[in-house]
Design goal:
It is built from 20 helices and eight strands. With 547 residues, the chain is mainly alpha-helical. Among the domains are: 1-30; 430-540, no CATH class. It has a two-stranded antiparallel sheet. Helix 5 (101-129) packs antiparallel against helix 6 (137-159) and helix 7 (164-178) runs antiparallel to helix 8 (184-192). The chain is globular. Residues 532-547 have low confidence and may be disordered. The chain crosses the membrane at residues 44-63, 109-128, 140-160, 172-194, 206-230, 251-277, 329-350, 370-391, 406-426.
Length: 547
């Protein structure tokens, strides 16, 4: 045993003398990571991606990405002697003849669904808490790109079995490409290798699914983690937490042990789902036939909103020089993703421009303290969910026993009415929570004890907050709208930037004009002087520098 230890020590010493690895380890092994549960969402995405890679390697050994037509002679008797592509036949072989093949197929599919769900939840957490602000704009762009690549990876993999359901999805993609003016037919012919469905689409999607897209995802995940490591982690405010430090547990051994255990939990849940809940039973759909469309089919959840947009879009079409322009397909299939992704990717700079805040931020916002941003996020979620419901309008019509056209018209009207209402309601809720926090700091928390004064007046007894509790409610900065300043200086010379400053000030008032500011020390003393708690108990409860 001692010889092994001595040998290992010599190897470590040899490496350290040449690349000084010990200095790097000493500097980084004690790096601090926050321990709040919300930071685990990104880890769920990472660990599920690892499961996707491992199960994908297994599936690659048996799957044949060929559209060559054969007669099935495998073990699944209902399909015996049925004509199909080699891709579909090898998918059946994986499901019924390869030991563990069906489990690996389902692990791969469930892992993809959880990967995208975890990424979406992680990005929502980043958005609502303001973790995208300077200096993390690049990581936000990487996150948006990873989300797009995840959808692309999921859709290409979903299409590979060449079953009736996946073929219908490819047909929708082909229809969207054909709706693109001028270049649509050329793009479709290039992708499918001629007239749809062609003979090449599976062979072309296969290297994209197993090599190109995973490689890009792996590279961007690596870049994301390197930037995160360099910039340090964001964390929630509280006692002892500032923009200049990170409070939490060291990377080794605590974070490594926690992350390692959590990795096994995530992987175990994916395997449990795969082993107990059936997903995408391709043998029930049958091989793809361009002349057949199955009823009651819905895509995976992450592309359901695009299918929903196609279902609720009116049949609008016009002609330009005798050439049709089908807005009913062009808008939902081609333009809508760009309409969603462009402001999503640019939002850090849009908010920075609106608020005029160009400082670095390492403390997270409580969503209630930025009502407009929170309202925008909830409005987008409502918009997305409405389109997602539209993607299953036939399913909901069957379950609710109402005409499918009722659901379609509800969605058509709702996507214009409900998101603004959700924004207004969310903003009002946030302002109400801010008022409650302000009252709690000024007057203490309600105890439920009602006192009767000698002259018969009823009043509720309020208990003073501790200094730690008051700090948690008041550590955030005061958010005041910006002032454009005078149109001219003291010498009467016009300010050349005054017009842009006025626009920025209006946007700033939109963001911060209604915010309920935390109380100042003077306001606290006045409230306590009027009998709302003990002045000595509250005088120092606001954090220094934020009064």
């Amino acid at each position: 045993m001692s010889s092994i230890v001595n040998g290992a020590g010599k190897v470590v010493d040899f490496v350290d003398q040449r690349i000084t690895a010990s200095n790097w380890l000493k500097r980084n092994i004690r790096k601090v990571f926050p321990d709040h549960w919300s930071f685990l969402l990104g880890e769920i995405a990472l660990f599920s991606f690892i499961m996707i890679l491992l199960s994908g390697v297994f599936l690659t050994l048996w799957f044949k990405p060929s559209m060559a037509h054969i007669a099935y002679e495998g073990a699944y008797l209902p399909m015996r002697d049925v004509g199909m592509s080699e891709a579909y036949a090898t998918t059946l072989e994986l499901s019924f003849e390869v030991r563990g093949g069906l489990l690996m197929r389902q692990v791969h599919h469930w892992g993809a669904l959880i990967f995208l769900a975890a990424m979406s939840a992680h990005m929502l957490r980043v958005f609502f808490t303001g973790a995208f602000r300077k200096p993390r704009e690049i990581n936000w762009l990487i996150g948006v790109t990873l989300l797009v690549l995840g959808v692309a990876a999921g859709f290409t993999g979903y299409s590979l079995p060449d079953d009736l359901l996946s073929g219908t999805g490819l047909r929708i993609i082909e229809g969207g490409m054909l709706a693109i003016p001028i270049i649509g037919t050329y793009a479709s012919s290039f992708l499918f290798g001629g007239e749809y469905p062609g003979d090449d689409i599976i062979a072309r999607l296969y290297p994209m699914h197993i090599l190109l897209i995973p490689g890009l995802i792996l590279a961007l995940v690596t870049a994301h983690l390197m930037i995160l490591w360099y910039q340090k982690h964001t964390h929630w405010g509280g006692p002892g937490k500032t923009n200049h430090n990170v409070a939490g547990a060291p990377f080794y051994p605590i974070y490594v042990a926690k992350a390692g255990g959590f990795q096994f939990i995530v992987m175990g849940v994916i395997v449990l789902l795969a082993a107990t809940i059936q997903i995408n039973p391709v043998w029930l759909w049958g091989p793809y036939d361009p002349s057949v469309v199955s009823a009651g089919t819905q895509p995976d959840w992450y592309v359901g909103f695009l299918d929903g947009a196609l279902r609720v879009m009116p049949a609008w079409e016009f002609y330009v020089f005798d050439h049709p322009v089908s807005l009913s397909v062009l808008i939902p299939a081609i333009l809508l993703p760009g309409i969603i992704l462009t402001p999503l990717a640019l939002y850090p700079w849009l908010e920075q421009k609106a608020t005029g805040d160009t400082r670095e931020h390492h403390l997270l916002d409580r969503p209630r303290n930025v009502p407009v941003r929170t309202g925008i996020g909830v409005a987008f979620i409502v918009f997305y969910v409405l389109l997602w419901i539209a993607g299953g309008n036939d399913f909901f019509a069957t379950i609710l026993e109402i005409p499918v056209n009722w659901i379609t018209w509800f969605i058509r009207i709702g996507i214009f009415v409900l998101p603004p209402l959700a924004f207004i309601a969310t903003k009002r809720i946030c302002l109400g929570l801010q008022r409650r926090d302000r009252d709690k700091v000024m007057h203490g928390r309600e105890t439920g004890i009602v006192m009767v004064s000698p002259d018969g007046e009823f009043s509720e007894l309020h208990a003073p907050l501790t200094q730690s509790q008051a700090y948690e409610l008041t550590w955030h900065e005061r958010q005041l709208p910006s002032d454009p300043g005078p149109a001219t200086d003291a010498n009467g010379i016009p300010n050349p930037n005054y017009r842009s400053k006025r626009v920025q000030a209006r946007l700033s008032r939109f963001y911060f004009g209604d915010v309920v500011q935390k109380p100042t020390v003077e306001e606290l003393e006045a409230a306590h002087h009027n009998g709302h708690g003990s002045d000595s108990a509250h005088r120092d409860e606001l954090p220094s520098g934020q009064q």
